[in-house]
Amino acid sequence: MKFLVLALDVDLSRQAGDAIHLRELCSNLVRMRHPVEVVVAGRHDANEIESVPIHVVTGQRLWSVVRQVRPIVHDFQPDVIYERRVSPKVSFVLSRLLRVPYAVEVNGLPDEERSLLQGKEYKPSWFQVWIRHMLLRRAKTIVAVTDTLKLALIQKYGLPPARVQVVPNGVNTDLFVPMDRSSCRVRIGLEANDPVLGFIGSLVPWQGVDIMIRAIAEIRRQGTAVHMLIVGEGPDRPRLEVLAESEGLGGCSTFTGSVPYRDVPTYVGAMDIALSLKPPLLPGSPLKVREYMACARPVVASRGTGYDFGIVEAASAGVLVDPSNIREVVTAIVDLLGDEPRRTAMGAKGREFAVLRCKWSLVAQKIVAACRG
Fold this sequence. Notes:
The protein has helices spanning 17-31, 62-76, 89-98, 110-118, 126-137, 147-157, 181-187, 209-221, 237-246, 264-269, 287-294, 310-314, 326-337, 340-357, 360-372, and strands at residues 3-6, 36-41, 54-57, 80-83, 102-106, 141-144, 164-166, 196-200, 227-231, 253-257, 273-276, 299-302, 318-321. By secondary structure, the protein is an alpha/beta fold. It has 2 domains: 3-170 and 359-372, 3-Layer(aba) Sandwich (Rossmann fold), CATH 3.40.50.2000; 181-357, Glycogen Phosphorylase B (Rossmann fold). The strands form 2 sheets. A 7-stranded parallel sheet has the order 3-2-1-4-5-6-7, sandwiched between helices. Strand 9 (227-231), helix 9 and strand 10 form a beta-alpha-beta unit. Helix 1 (17-31) packs across helix 15 (360-372) and helix 2 (62-76) packs across helix 3. The longest helix has 18 residues, at 340-357. It is globular and about 65 Å long. The two termini are 12 Å apart. The model has no long low-confidence stretch (mean pLDDT 87).
């Protein structure tokens, strides 16, 4: 099956989850002998996808982009146009012009994300909602990364449930592997001798890093020495650094900024416990929890949110907590710190679960099945 993937909102020069998802999905489709070509917007980045031709289009106007993509479709002759956004206008127009079916992948709710970033509620117009409704209903299939997202799409746009397939995110289990903690700390220049509590991801309001900072500060106030490791970049970083300083973590915290994707497993390997304390603001399927599990690190993650953190309990790979209850978060972390055999067992079970059920190759197989159906 030939896929033309439209990733017009993805910046391949960043180490963000959407870029990782795009690379891993396309690479695994190619390994399964499904030809793939990708269309991105903006400049051509040197960070290409293995064995996948990348086409670059410029401009923002719909018809300008369609005119640039149309000859690509004509030359490549895809079986499906696969667009990664909730308003697949380009795919719809190309499908009508060239009679090629299109599929849509939904990884989040852009209106809600926009509201959180701007600090005020953003409501699309009735016309925008109607357009999305029309575009999504005409897609061959819609792929949502969580059950919560599927439900949101059904409720918001009146989609038939059978049209929306749930395919969670994956993890590269060849790259994300268990490693020796001490060696990892040496490799990244982390001189901490205390247990390391860590987070990896984009620093945006819905990640709950502020919850993590307050919990770690309370753990230290109770007399347990720990070091905080935060790996990633984003608009929330200045606020989080100020918060860490005000909570007394200036001398026992490390903010690394963005790091190359291939180095991320080493940073996870430096941790004793990996955290994802997202508040219930947005639904999604975070890559980080699967990456933590593949690296055999016990996970403390949020309970009762729209994220698919249930895999942590399903795998017995960690503990789920109420992110609004700092006392519960602190208790879970301190209990794990005091029980190394339990942490080791959780790590091993998480690794096993990731290898058996979370590989990107399995994600790619499900995408192919959804698009064929």
